[in-house]
Amino acid sequence: MSAGSVALIVPSDFGVMDLYELGIPAAVFGTPQPDLADPWYEMWLCGTGTRTRDTDPGFTLHSTRSLDDVVNADTVMVSWVPEEVIEENAPVPPELVSALRKAHDNGARIVSACVGAYALAEAGLLDGRRATAHWMHTALLAERYPKIQVDDSVLYVDEGDVLTSAGMTAGLDLCLHLVRRDLGAHVANQLARRMVVPGHRPGNRSQYVDLSVPVSDEQGLEPVLDWARARLDEPLTIEDLARRAAMSPRTFYRRLHATTGTTPLQWLLNERIARAQALLESTDLSVEKIAGLSGIGTANNLRHHFLKQVGASPTDYRQGFPRHQR
Questions:
Q1: How do beta strands 75-78 and 109-113 pair?
Q2: How many CB atoms lie within 10 A of CB 73?
């Protein structure tokens, strides 16, 4: 496994939100972690304009490289396009588009967060692929680039050599996903723990929750969800949960989807995987026993769902948590 170089595109002018989305990959890839992997990533700040930029809040950022260097990177990440691209239908800067195409042709992995997807789209790198962006901008992305299969609900999409994510903290989920791909689950889990964030949020998890149905009111779903969490080792069905909530299965399905952004069966699976993760982190129980306690059934079923949702086998995941922590 190898980390390689990550070229982070730094815009010529940016605001506070851009600093946040630049800071995430800088924290993940730009801070050496020699006890986890040595060598760590080599991060380049590749500027789109002058080498020094002053932000509105008074910060100054120095980029060490230019867009010409992007072609030589192993991974290129862009989380920005000029505001007028979104607001006024202005073109994506051609020099950025050209740099992304050259880097991709040279074998680089191209990654976007938030509106950076517009730059990848303009370069033609998303044609015929699934992709996402911040949900506020996905409708426009789909309208302008009809060849893209835009998914406005997920946190991130991994298409192998091209990856896209929603905005803000979803970019962190994608960065940790890249670390998991490059350096393994153990390293990704340990890094996430140091950053005090969840070790893994699956890319297909919803970007947002429709809050039109409050969870905390007297008819909220939290009591029945807590009831289900206490019985994950039992063979629960949608009918069981709907009956407990005093609703028809159809009404319960609609309410849960509006509240959590997922279906009842997927919610149960997510909770069972979370229970399995907690048991793997805190106990030395066998995978077979954990499969039973989490309601997934057999060890083979747990391995299948765990690998699909977490991106690592239960055994590999457990290795990220030393015995003294269990």
A1: parallel
A2: 25
- The 10s digit of each residue's pLDDT in 49-70 is 644 445 555 556 667 788 999 9
If asked whether residues 174 and 231 sit together in one domain, one would say no
* C-alpha to C-alpha distance for 177 and 162, rounded to whole angstroms: 13
Burial class (CB in 10 A: 0-12, 13-18, 19+), 72: middle
| CA distances from residue 297 to 62, 209, 287, 308 in whole angstroms, order as listed | 54, 30, 10, 16
Q: Which is nearest to 124 in space by CA: 105, 151, 152?
A: 105
Residue 238: name the closest of 214, 202, 262, 212 by CA.
Answer: 262
Closest by CA to 241, choosing from 213, 218, 222, is 222
Tell me the three state secondary structure of residue 79: coil
Domain with 230 in it: 211-326
Q: Evaluate whether 238 touches 221 at the Cβ level (below 8 Å).
A: no
What is the SS3 assignment for 185-230? HHHHHHHHHHCCCCCCCCCCCECCCCCCCCCCCCCCCHHHHHHHHC
Q: Is 33 exposed, middle or buried (0-12, 13-18, 19+ CB in 10 A)?
A: middle
Residue entry with tokens 């229970």: 275
The structure's pTM equals 0.68
Statement to judge: residues 190 and 79 lie in one domain? yes
- Cα dihedral sign, 14-163-317-42: negative
The pLDDT, as a whole number, for residue 285 is 94
Number of Cα atoms under 13 Å in the Cβ half of residue 263? 8
47 lies in the same domain as 21 = yes
Residue 16: the pLDDT is 53
